[in-house]
Write a structure and sequence with these properties.
Blueprint (H helix, E strand, L loop, with lengths): L3 H15 L4 E6 L20 E7 L2 E6 L2 E6 L4 E6 L14 E7 L7 E6 L7 E5 L6 H4 L12 H8 L6 H6 L9 H10 L13 H22 L4 H11 L18 E4 L4 E4 L1 H4 L8 H7 L1
Antiparallel strand pairs: 1-6, 2-3, 3-4, 4-8, 5-7, 6-7, 9-10
């Protein structure tokens, strides 16, 4: 799933290529991905891109007084082309969900929004104000914003009675952190994913806050200047524990372990994060009952 660093890179990439350019045609190939109907998708045609922003994991492309907002979910992506096919796309079973064709100065350039896999959760909105999108209106603070201080983070954790892994992934608490980067942040902070937020000491809160900033900013910097087709590969290569079950921890050499859930999993290093304790695999535990 694209998280804050990848969506930030997408926003910067698109901003360099679409700002000031006109929208010639917009094709809704997968109609189920379109979550709004007023204004219609066609209202974007003839408009001009004014800029591209990011709200957590949401992309926001401003076209005149309208906003084309996209949430790429788990398997969505954006593909840029200097020359899109002349033939309009036809609805089908392929990954293509949306096509945006630009006008001048080079007719035919534009981008496709795709979604792989059978589970379709890609969401596209056309709104007059991004706050009309429920997922944006309930976002917590952006962890890369200047105002995200240690005091701000400590205030967010005050009274939280959940495990810190779940708190970091909650978009209403912090905008943009998902499963992968929460694993990376907790590894960098030497913190168990299962530790209760209410049990964190002041020093531990400070460690996590620092790890949030360094982990996300490093990931954004690694993505700077890369082509869209290379961003996913860069993300995977830059992760130290997430998705690396059975490999050696790059810090201590211990074996990276995994805890599986019904539809996701987390990875961690026992030596670095849990005092050597191997956490129970929830899915395996259910099978053994």
């Amino acid at each position: 799933m694209p998280e804050l660093p990848e969506v930030e890179a997408l926003a910067r990439f698109l901003a360099e290529r679409v700002a000031g350019r006109g929208v010639e045609r917009v094709y809704a190939v997968a109609v189920h991905a379109l979550k709004t109907y007023d204004p219609p998708l066609g209202a974007l045609e003839g408009g001009r891109f004014e800029g591209v922003e990011r709200h957590g994991k949401f992309l926001d492309l401003r076209v005149g007084e309208l906003h084309l907002v996209m949430h790429l979910a788990r398997a969505g992506w954006v593909r840029w082309s200097d020359r899109l096919p002349e033939v309009p796309p036809r609805p089908g079973k392929g990954p293509l969900a949306l096509r945006v064709r630009l006008a001048e100065p080079v007719d035919g350039a534009g981008f496709d929004v795709t979604e792989a896999g059978s589970q379709k959760h890609l969401a596209v909105y056309v709104v007059r104000d991004p706050q009309e999108v429920a997922g944006i209106s309930r976002l917590g603070p952006d962890p890369l914003a200047e105002g995200f201080t240690l005091e701000t983070f400590a205030g967010l954790l005050d009274g939280e009675r959940r495990q810190i892994k779940g708190v970091l992934r909650d978009q209403a608490v912090l905008a943009g952190i998902g499963n992968a980067y929460s694993d990376e942040i907790l590894h960098a902070a030497r913190m168990s994913p299962f530790k209760m937020a209410t049990a964190l000491s002041g020093e531990e809160v400070a460690r996590i806050h620092e790890a949030i900033g360094t982990t996300l900013r490093d990931a954004v910097e690694r993505s700077r200047g890369l082509a869209l087709k290379d961003l996913k590969g860069e993300k995977k290569s830059g992760l130290r524990v997430h998705g690396r079950k059975g490999e050696a921890c790059p810090v201590c050499g211990d074996t990276i372990r995994e805890v599986s859930f019904s539809d996701s999993s987390l990875q961690y290093c026992p030596t670095c994060q849990t005092g050597g304790k191997v956490l129970a695999d929830r899915r395996l535990s259910r099978l053994l009952k």
